[in-house]
Amino acid sequence: EVQLVESGGGLVQAGGSLRLSCAASGFTVDEDYAIHWFRQAPVKEREGVSCITGSDGNTDYADPVKGRFTISRDIAKNTVYLQMNKLKPEDTAVYYCAAVSAYSPGVYGCYTIGGYHGMDYWGKGTLVTVSS
Questions:
Q1: Count of CB atoms within 10 A of residue 75's CB?
Q2: pLDDT tens across 34-69, in order?
């Protein structure tokens, strides 16, 4: 059974840092899955933040977080991380980890047709609150 468990959220002041973790089970993070981080702020649509592909470790970032967030993985711990630096109040959201098989229709590396609608598995999310 595939499970994704996020942790590391919390309250931080603007300019601060947090590291989110996504612990995977039921598959390994260097297999043919892309692991995505999404976020959803109140009354906003869920949006993609970052992605790392399983087989080759390629990464991708949404424009609002480029240069501030870094996605990485620890294969031994079967965990994907999202290091978030220079946090802004607009980064406040519930952050979700999701996985999609590289063999699912419409999946091309970190690009999935349909965006978050195309994910195969989801974690329950972790709340990040950035105060001004």
A1: 12
A2: 999 999 999 999 999 999 999 899 999 999 999 999
